[in-house]
């Protein structure tokens, strides 16, 4: 289907349509759905990391005034499918990780539910657990594939021989921490089971995909999809953790079916989210780079060790970006996992690319240092002509443009490459750069319906807006595809009553849903012409992607870091990113995506770290006081720019996804800037003051 | 233990019976159905539940409802008179801080936003009263700049990380000055 080459609405700086209801607080999130006489749920969690529940005493809880029911493995309904062991809650006595749900209290108020949960007595037969990730474990294994379905290992040429022959090389190990998504809205579900007939389940769930959630829940409960409706107009953040249903959805549905006709509400506590809603695995990345004296890379090798849970595998694809970033005749990448007695890891913003561009992009800086070459120039010198590995031409690749433009805007040209020589007051000052990339993904299925309603056009699709701007940007795409003004277009999303839409994940939303909208508009115009009658309606679905091209977005991130001479405190007063991500649908919401991603990258660089105590299998800093995310005063100037990029291959709009690339490379740019400031290579995130202090102590003071 | 109290919320007297363990946040959200204040952490760590009580910003998750008998509580929904039910009406019913948040795209998912907005209103009142912050230098009334706003707004976490836009919005609301660019920029590569 065609899309205008010079669109009117797409590219316009329009305020987000959901702005007013969000600043007022009247946008309704899942838990807030008005439901009369709702019961409240509170989960009881295991206090051991491995073993069996041997006794569950619910008498005191059941005797509490206001408790409606206590669900346990002994009385909870048997699920139709327990294939997804993360979702197979209350189906047996086995405990597979600390924090696993072992009982659920249903009560007339949230206070009583919580009180009741505290009264449930659980006894365990504890078994030795293993929750420690180390690269030298003997039980590391190669998964069959890595997320989403990529090869576990790749090998081209002879890396070892090339490294042995390399004039300059880097061989270092880098680590990223365990991270928790921590959307501000906790994972929450309201549910109502209408027992009439075959029964009908309505779920108001905070989810990045109403249709995928419906499919998963229908399978778990053995329901026909026609017996399930999932509603989610607003999502209070997800960053991947609401991309797949977690146990809260199953618990709410189970409780609703235990009290037919009565709605129930469940919001996990912030603390519970650290064991029940996914997280990013820590990574150990051994990176090896070899190069000729002129800076031509001859070998790239990245070997990643990560964890997964014993009950459900998630293999983060952290070695994947090294497969295509730079040219090299010799290359290998591997992924190895340790299956541990830990909560189930899952998607977090830019899985693979985010952690996987930390090690290699710091290694590039170290290689530039050893070569005596500017790190911007080193990257430019190793531009591949086609995508390494596949040999496919890039649909567009403007990494070099991003690096050059960013260098100009950041003032890179005046940079003295020597580390530790700039002092401003009590602070050492440095600058660093790193590259960003993120693939262009298109999900195979999504359908949109367009209908004339009076003078207006309604666009319906079960898409999600997690703050990304979908309410606004889909209207812009529809307006141009229909050839009408955007003010005439109403968008309806977030409900399985609308046509099927894919998950908001992998930065695939606009490519997938936008393409469906363009197809629907084409069908609508083909059917009704320019004068459609009231009620005229047509649908269209996303078509298969171009598979002749390699499609990725690129970017360059520049950081300024200050390191305090006495305390080692690290501050980042300035971040600047330049991105090449196809056509930008809405420059206002797009900028928010970029700066939001960059700020989350800053948070990863300096603050975030889930501390898992291997002795207990417990994340000890399991709240927002212990798990630091950037606060307002941690953030200085953040600038985001993008290059004009005309890519006819990605989709009809020419757009690439932008929700994730902003977080990719940021932490490496900050680490490289910290090295430039104080001369310490911090290869283990986060960059806390204890990691630089030793070098400052050895430094002459004046 | 139950107690009968009356709280004025957004200008309306709301009598209610509460469990003495009930927080102001849960009383608003679960008893009165006023869900503009959000629950992000329930421990006073994120600021999403911020409301004004007696004109000062408080964390409603750390405030027991029984202590608010007779109090005047204002949520983001009630900041602008006649704002309730304003829905999609951008032109009417928004407080200048709310208008600035929309104009500057100082929000994404929107979950922390009501708390941010209320906190900004409270912070600007504190600033107008001459209260110093941790970054105020020297004696005398503080000047309003990005560092002051960022410091005063740091009790409100935003995981989408709209911080730079939040600072711009608060400054714009406070000073009516043209603030920094809010749309991103295409540049010649």
TrEMBL record, chain A:
Gene3D superfamilies: Aldehyde oxidase/xanthine dehydrogenase, a/b hammerhead, Aldehyde oxidase/xanthine dehydrogenase, molybdopterin binding domain
Residues passing through the membrane, by range: none
Residue ranges of domain Aldehyde oxidase/xanthine dehydrogenase a/b hammerhead in the record: 24-128
Pfam families found in the cross-reference section: Ald_Xan_dh_C (PF01315), MoCoBD_1 (PF02738), MoCoBD_2 (PF20256)
Record has Oxidoreductase as a keyword: yes
Keywords recorded for this protein, A-Z: Molybdenum, Oxidoreductase
Coiled-coil regions listed in the entry: none
Protein name from the UniProt record: Xanthine dehydrogenase
Organism name: Kitasatospora aureofaciens
Lineage: Bacteria, Bacillati, Actinomycetota, Actinomycetes, Kitasatosporales
TrEMBL record, chain B:
Stored InterPro entries: 2Fe-2S-bd, 2Fe-2S-bd_dom_sf, 2Fe-2S_ferredoxin-like_sf, 2Fe-2S_ferredoxin-type, 2Fe2S_fd_BS, Aldehyde_Oxdr_Iron-Sulfur, Beta-grasp_dom_sf
Superkingdom per UniProt: Bacteria
MF (Gene Ontology): 2 iron, 2 sulfur cluster binding; metal ion binding; oxidoreductase activity, acting on the aldehyde or oxo group of donors
Pathway noted in the entry: Alkaloid degradation; nicotine degradation
UniProt entry tagged with the keyword Iron: yes
CDD domains: fer2 (cd00207)
Keyword Disulfide bond: no
Domain 2Fe-2S ferredoxin-type: 3-79
Pfam families from the UniProt entry: Fer2, Fer2_2
Keywords noted in UniProt: 2Fe-2S, Iron, Iron-sulfur, Metal-binding, Oxidoreductase
PANTHER family the record matches: OXIDOREDUCTASE WITH IRON-SULFUR SUBUNIT, OXIDOREDUCTASE, IRON-SULPHUR BINDING SUBUNIT-RELATED-RELATED
Full protein name: (2Fe-2S)-binding protein
Organism: Kitasatospora aureofaciens
